Amino acid sequence: MDEVDDILNNNQVVDDEEDDEEMLSGLENDSKQDLEGNDDGDDDDDDDEDEQEDDDDQDDDDGEDVAGKVEKTNVPMDDQRVDQKPADAADASSKVGSEENEVNDVGGEQESRGSSSSAHEASVKGEVYEYYKHMLRAAQIADSYSIYPTAAIPIQTHVNALAVSRGLKYLFLGGSDGYIRKYDLLNSLEGKLSLTILQKHSLTESIQNAGILQSYWENEIPQKKSEMKLSAHKTDYEPKVSPVHSLEVQSECLFILSGLQNGGITMQGVRYMEGSIAHYFKGRNGHSQIVNILKLNGQESRFLSGSWDKRLLEWDLQTGNIVNEFRKSRSELSSLEMRPLYSSVDVCSNVNSGKENENADDDMDSLFGDEDEDEKQNVDNDPIKTDDTSRDEGNKEQISKESLNIVYDESVFMTSGLNGSMYIWDRRTTQSPALSLERGPGVPPWCLSACWSVDGDHVYAGRRNACVEQFDLKMPSKPMHNFKLPSISGPVSCVKAMPNDKHILCASRDNIRLYNVELAVAASNPLQKVQRCRSSLSLATTVVSYQIFT
Fold it and tell me: Is the pLDDT of residue 5 over 70?
């Protein structure tokens, strides 16, 4: 057996040596062929070698995958599921993370766009606000005004009320026919529509533009279902329409308030659901007759309403309820105006001092003298108090940044009555008016319009006998001046003060007049006229002397 093994081993060694010799010869032949080959052959061999390397890499990867599969197959099924879950969770988390990154990128772009657009809007609003301030300042320092009519709106009914939105964008007119009309005022003033030849016939040459009517709707009175008159098909009903006696629009045209003939007030949509009634202000304690006065406050959260039932109410727009009622008004109200800022007269202090003087007790006297008389003397000797709130409001801007309207002192307002009476009201005392301004001698009992001066210390009232009375709140017992207009002009239906505090606009039956109050006061007072002539003469001499020396 040992001999057989030795023989087999020798044969195997011989075979191995022969195989090695054949391998070496093959390698030598291959090397010779490579040396004889050209450059193209070298490139092909390189490509083949690269392909072989790639194949080897793939084989290694496949081997690793197969090994991994084999290892996984050796694991129980429960363990395989447990091992697969983290991988699936990792894939899901990676997908969610990528989606969140995409969402964050989109959100960041939207936020950047929103911030840029908001910054642009803020800059535009700031420019518009500065433009309004500049225009107000120019109007305040103006010596005179030139007024030229440029547009006309022909309407076949009486116009009882009007309202203008922010920036003179829209004009709302309320007529006796029971319709509210909406006009594009800005484009009308810019001349986007011209009047016809027949419409221009009775107007001046400067009036060339016509009003652009955008829409109109009925001033409807809300009805109960039992009171409605249904049509034959019972799908429609006949609306109950009321003449429009008063209008007040929100600055952004979100809603409009309209006064009705039955004493109710409707809030109607303008920008959204135009003409539809959103709320009906009536209630048990509301007005019972025509509502001819509506006035929103500066924040546009409340409004005042006046009626022919001699009542003055304040409503809350958030709840729709009555907040305050100002009592002891003895006449039908015709106008309402808020007091301007920077007034130097404290209405409440004057009223309180008068009440203290009336309620003084004459029985309780001191042994060393009458204490009440001493208190009266102290009250009389005190100077006229100024309103502390007006001092604080002196730091406020004259124009609101939100509504672009002039800011007023809402704590004090004024009303006029058809019997000629004028009342100054204070919100802190709702039981009675703070001041009462009585008409002068020879003036008939009639006042359709009244307004404040720009400084808030004077009041102008239009009268029936073609005159305008001027009152001073420091001496409210009688009118300070009486400005006569031509008797042919008729009653003064509207009065407005101009921003320079020197002129007033007086609307009469025939036309509108721009009245110079300063010249009228100087003409009525000879002493002031002489002083004014002396001041102008001294100014002229200083100018002449300056020109000579220069």
Answer: no
DSSP per-residue string spanning 304-353: EEEETTS-EEEEETTT-SEEEEE----S-EEEEEEEESS----HHHHHHH
Q: Which amino acid is at 415?
A: T
Q: Which residue has the higher pLDDT, 370 or 451?
A: 451
CB 217 within 8 A of CB 181: no
Give yes or no for a contact between 312 and 298, defined as CB atoms under 8 angstroms apart. Answer: no
Distances (CA, A) of 546 to 329, 533, 549, 550: 60, 20, 5, 6
Residue with tokens 């195997």: 12
pLDDT, position 163: 95
Which tokens belong to 402?
A: 């939100």
CA neighbor of 222 nearest in space, from 262, 186, 182: 262
CA 347, 287, 416 angle in degrees (round to 5)?
Answer: 35
Q: Is the pLDDT of residue 83 over 50?
A: no
- Give the tokens for residue 332: 């039908």
- C-alpha 334/C-alpha 312 separation (Å) is 11
Share of the chain above pLDDT 70, in %: 65
Residue type, 459: V
The amino acid at 525: N
Residue 292 buriedness (CB in 10 A; 0-12 / 13-18 / 19+):
buried
What is the predicted pLDDT for the residue at 95? 55
pLDDT bucket at 521, cuts 50 / 70 / 90:
confident
Instruction: DSSP letter for 120, please.
Output: H
Q: Is the pLDDT of residue 75 over 50?
A: no
Taking a C-beta distance cutoff of 8 angstroms, is the pair 450, 337 a contact? Answer: yes
Which residue's entry shows tokens 């006029």? 416
Q: Are 504 and 517 in contact (CB under 8 A)?
A: yes
Judge whether residue 499 has pLDDT over 70: yes
Q: What's the topology of domain 331-344+399-549?
A: Methylamine Dehydrogenase; Chain H (2.130.10)
Asked whether 276 and 268 are in contact (CB, 8 A), the reply is: yes
For residues 463 and 473, what is the distance between their CA atoms, to the nearest angstrom?
Answer: 19
Ordered by start, the domain boundaries in the chain are 331-344+399-549
pLDDT value at residue 125 = 79
pTM: 0.67
pLDDT of residue 439: 84
Three-state SS at 233: coil
**415-436 burial: b if 16+ Cβ within 10 Å, else e:** bbbeebbbbbbbeeebeebbbe
